[in-house]
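Exercise 3.2. Students should predict the tertiary structure of the chain below and write it as structure tokens, then compare their answer with the key that follows.

Predict this chain's 3D structure.
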Amino acid sequence: MLTRRGVLAAAAGSLLLAGCGPQGQRPGDGGTSSAPGDQDLFVGASLELSGRGATLGVFQRRALEITAESLNRTGIQVGTLLRSIRLDIRDNGGSPEVAARQAAELTRAGAQALVGGVLGETAAALAAAAQRLKTPYLSLGYGDRIVLPLQERTFSFKLTPDGTDMARRLADLLESQRIRRVVLLAADGPHGDSGVRAVRDALDNSRVDLVRTVRLPETGRNFRSAAERAAAGEPDGVIVWGTAPDSGDAARELRRAGHRGPLFFDAGAVADDTVSGANATAVEGAYAVHPACLGGSPLTATSTAQVARQDFDRRYTQRHGTSVAFAPYASDALQLLAASARKATSLDRGRLRAFLQTQMAEGIAGGYAFTEGRHGGMEADSLGVYLVSQGSWTRYA
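Answer key:
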């Protein structure tokens, strides 16, 4: 039987490899002509390159740059023209107000699409701004409400996993580990809000008892008090729902508060910062639900998706010295925009939005199936479970 995952895998070639073209081809070859610079696909990015969120934002900037260069080697076929991607990447410093202002500035400058927001707060601000501006926006942040309610977010698309899917995977893991009493320690803001709703719903249908929910204070505040409340009563395990660097800080404070049981993270925790330095001992043996791309590409690529992942990983390693360890959502965002421009045969913002919501494809980070009634996020079967072993994220299930 043809499964939903099989359909996504079959679509991978059109998303991931459409920009590769014949060897040696350049814009202008093959009976088409190159578009002038003012007719590029102009993508504006608002990312956390400093301050709160920089742990994840810097990796997404690198993914954008590598993927834009790859696509521009052959150009993007839009009607009879081969177009290039032009990036304008700005630092929002983790501020929702700055992110919203940048969305307006980039749109006025001619951006046909927006990408960014690794934090739930900045992503939500960008989504609201994109709706006012009628500019397609691809979110890299966590929080289900970024694209909900849909009638108020018709121009927004979320690439990160949905909280409900991560929570269900965690509930299954908790049951398999015979965890019976668990505490949820959730970040403040939209991402934490999604986690609270999703974990409660998932555990209601399981044999695991959610003893209590404790919310972390804002980033930069002392987490000790929240960790002490979470560790009280010696729960069998603690779910930490947040993004790096908060996840590692929370784990460290939980150990100081006396929690010796296992820790369970959502995908937002997965970063080098979480498993290194002062956090290393605290998180050893912890589990995380994360897109399966964290395991890297096999040595022998057997699908177009694996070929594309291998190529991306090679380019990233050559440039930055290490393999990319975290889901390169920004790379998928550019590929989705390029595929939409090809199908739309236009760079019109409205047409790009219309074709984005028909995309079903396998990306670098995982599978996506956008529809008119669903603008996010990643497909549930793209997720895997990872174990922190000797300071590394190791595939567990």
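Discussion points: Confidence is low (pLDDT under 50) at residues 17-32. The longest helix spans residues 54-72.
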